Amino acid sequence: MTAISLNPAVVADRALLWHWLAEVFLAPPSADRLTALREGAGSKWLAALGTEPAFAEALTEIRTALASPLEAARLQTRLTIAFNGLFLGLGGKRTLAPNESAWTHGGRLFQAPVAEMSALMVACDLHLAEGCCEAPDHLSVELMLLAHLEAHADPRAEALQARLRLWLPGFCAAVRAEDRTGFWAGAAALLLAALDHNSLTTQPEERTV
What we know:
Strand content: under 5%
Strand order of the largest sheet: 1-2
Structural class: mainly alpha
Helix content: 55-70%
Number of strands: 2
Radius of gyration: 17 Å
């Protein structure tokens, strides 16, 4: 988890937000991440983000899910089971593929967006990490690429944002309909709000890893 020091007006780093959302949709939270989100630096960061009116409702939902009375280990298990059912195929026909192809090509994976996102990564001199099993059009990959483009003031960031806006409403609506924890439903709402919110600064006051 990357921590950020925020002033009362919520100086938030867009790249940090994109990376955090990418992690949320890539894997269930680890024990350490869950602890940070419930009572550590992550909790403070979420609270600060929640003071932004555009994010308030989504952050309330996320923080309510994290405030479950379950002990950390049991909550982690619950979230892991939910993630596997939502995104990894254990939900059967109710599984939601977090890939652009699935939402722009009638549910089919590995369509044109895979090649298009691969080409964009090559143009940015980027590549998927060794061992990564996700396709280039996976939501987490696209968000990490967006973070990179915005951090470098690359004009292609605007086109990628527009691309995300085309398919994410359907995906996020489906997440809300299927998620029983509130965590990913809130994250989906935060993602949509962030895509349409441009007042976040790209230069945080302080960041520690």
